[in-house]
From TrEMBL:
It comes from Chloroherpeton thalassium (strain ATCC 35110 / GB-78). Belongs to the complex I 24 kDa subunit family. One of its GO terms (molecular function) is NADH dehydrogenase activity. Keywords: 2Fe-2S, Iron, Iron-sulfur, Metal-binding, Oxidoreductase. InterPro entries: NuoE-like, NuoE_dom, NuoE_N, Thioredoxin-like_sf. Gene3D superfamilies: Glutaredoxin, NADH-quinone oxidoreductase subunit E. Its EC number is 1.6.99.5. It is an enzyme of class 1 (oxidoreductase). This is NADH-quinone oxidoreductase, E subunit. CDD domains: TRX_Fd_NuoE. NCBIfam families: nuoE_fam.
Length: 195
């Protein structure tokens, strides 16, 4: 942060995803397309019971249960968040608080292939913005957007913890693609049927 003469601080933006908040920040939730389909089956409930048994308090299983819900439903709709709260007998606000804090939880639908490109310092210095901007321009996406065909979504990641293999990209909250170049990215996109 650079100090200005009037005693206030100027904030340098990191990429295009960091904006200084004005007024009250809101955590938006979106309803599921078909809320009747947002249910845990018996196998899910057994898994959640196993999660709860690992902790002294059932509330500690919230992150694993959110992950299970996201894996099952593809993202965490308002209905899925309420289901997790009801299943764990927690206040919905507590579940919403956890989901809103962690970027690994998708609070809106993502593309079939979701790319999180790291633009933090190591990745940035090694070409992270080149990769991120290539994807933005090639597919007409902004941070958090999904292509019209639903095949691809893009996110600017703050840090993927892969500094030694920068620049890095995470695919669908799982696989890492590291030491990225535009050529390596294009080969990956062709392999996935996106290019």
């Amino acid at each position: 942060m650079a100090s200005q003469s009037n005693g206030e601080h100027a904030h340098a933006a990191h990429g295009d995803s960091l904006q200084m908040p004005e007024g009250t920040q809101r955590f938006e939730t979106f309803p599921a397309e078909n809320p009747a389909e947002i249910v845990f089956d018996d196998a899910d409930l057994q898994q959640i019971e196993a999660y709860k048994s690992r902790y002294p308090k059932k509330e500690a299983a919230v992150m694993r249960t959110l992950w299970l819900a996201q894996t099952k439903f593809g993202w965490l709709s308002e209905d899925a968040l309420k289901l997790v709260a009801k299943t764990l007998e927690m206040p919905p606000a507590d579940v919403f608080g956890v989901a809103s804090f962690y970027t690994m939880y998708f609070k809106k639908p993502k593309g079939k292939t979701h790319l999180a490109v790291c633009t933090n310092i190591s990745c940035s210095l090694c070409g992270g913005y080149e990769i991120y901007n290539y994807l933005k321009e090639k597919f007409g996406l902004e941070n958090g957007d999904v292509t019209a065909d639903g095949k691809l979504s893009l996110e600017e990641a703050e840090c993927l913890g892969s500094c030694g293999t920068a620049p890095a990209m995470q695919v669908n909250n799982g696989e890492y693609v590291e030491n990225l170049t535009v050529e390596k990215l294009e080969a990956f996109l062709k392999e996935k049927g996106i290019l």
